[in-house]
C-alpha cells in the first residue's frame, strides 16, 4: 500500500513468535502490522490501512461512495478473519493444520470467483485497499502449496495485473521475491 502511494517507509521485519521489546512496549497485542508515525502508534491491518489512505490521499485506495466503502471494509474483514488464519496455519501449523488450511483457502478462493469477475480489481474498477490485502495472499499461493484449477485462471490473471505494477514489485522484500517467479 505504501509503495502504491509512493511513500518512503522503513520496514522492520518481526518474528511473531518472538516480538522485539519495542513492539511489546508499543502495541498491547504484540501484533503486526504496527505503524509508528511520529507520536502515533497504530495496529490492526484495517486501522493502519485506512489511516494511511487518509494520511496520503493520492492515489485514493478507498471508493468515494459509502456503499462501496462499506462493501470493501466487509471484504477486508472477511480476509482478515477467514483467509489469513488459513495462510498462517499453512505457514506455522502442524502438517494436519497446514493441509486443512490449504484446502480451506482454496475453497475460499474458488467461492470468491464471482468477485474477481465483477471488476478489473477486487470489488472496484480501480485498485483499492482490498487489492493491497489480497495480492500478498495470491502472491504466496505457490509457496503455500495451493494450486488453483483451470477455472480459477481469472484469479491468477488478476494477481499478475497487480504483480506487474512497479509499486508492487518495489514493495516485495527479498524473502517475498523468492516465493514466486516474477511475472513477465
From TrEMBL:
PROSITE patterns from the UniProt entry: GST_CTER (PS50405), GST_NTER (PS50404)
An annotated GO cellular component: cytoplasm
Gene3D superfamilies xref list: 1.20.1050.10, Glutaredoxin
Domain spans labelled GST C-terminal: 65-184
Domain of life: Bacteria
Domain GST N-terminal: 1-60
Classification via InterPro entries: Glutathione-S-Trfase_C-like, Glutathione-S-Trfase_C_sf, Glutathione_S-Trfase, Glutathione_S-Trfase_N, GST_C, GST_Omega/HSP26, SspA_C, Thioredoxin-like_sf
Protein name: Stringent starvation protein A
Organism: Arenimonas malthae CC-JY-1
Encoding gene per record: sspA
Amino acid at each position: 500500500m505504501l509503495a502504491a502511494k509512493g511513500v518512503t517507509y522503513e520496514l522492520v521485519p518481526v518474528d511473531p513468535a518472538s516480538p522485539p521489546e519495542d513492539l511489546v512496549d508499543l502495541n498491547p497485542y504484540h501484533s503486526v502490522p504496527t505503524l509508528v508515525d511520529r507520536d502515533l502508534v497504530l495496529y490492526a491491518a484495517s486501522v493502519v490501512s485506512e489511516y494511511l489512505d487518509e494520511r496520503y490521499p493520492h492515489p485514493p485506495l478507498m471508493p468515494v461512495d459509502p456503499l462501496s466503502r462499506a462493501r470493501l471494509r466487509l471484504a477486508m474483514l472477511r480476509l482478515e478473519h477467514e483467509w489469513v488464519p488459513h495462510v498462517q496455519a499453512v505457514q506455522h501449523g502442524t502438517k494436519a493444520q497446514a493441509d486443512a488450511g490449504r484446502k480451506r483457502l482454496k475453497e475460499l478462493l474458488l467461492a470468491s470467483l464471482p468477485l474477481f469477475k465483477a471488476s478489473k480489481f477486487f470489488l472496484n474498477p480501480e485498485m483499492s485497499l482490498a487489492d493491497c490485502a489480497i495480492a500478498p495472499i495470491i502472491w504466496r499461493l505457490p509457496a503455500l502449496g495451493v494450486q488453483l484449477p483451470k477455472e480459477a485462471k481469472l484469479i491468477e490473471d488478476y494477481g499478475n495485473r497487480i504483480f506487474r505494477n512497479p509499486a508492487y514489485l518495489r514493495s516485495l522484500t527479498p524473502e517475498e521475491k523468492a516465493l514466486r517467479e516474477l511475472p513477465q
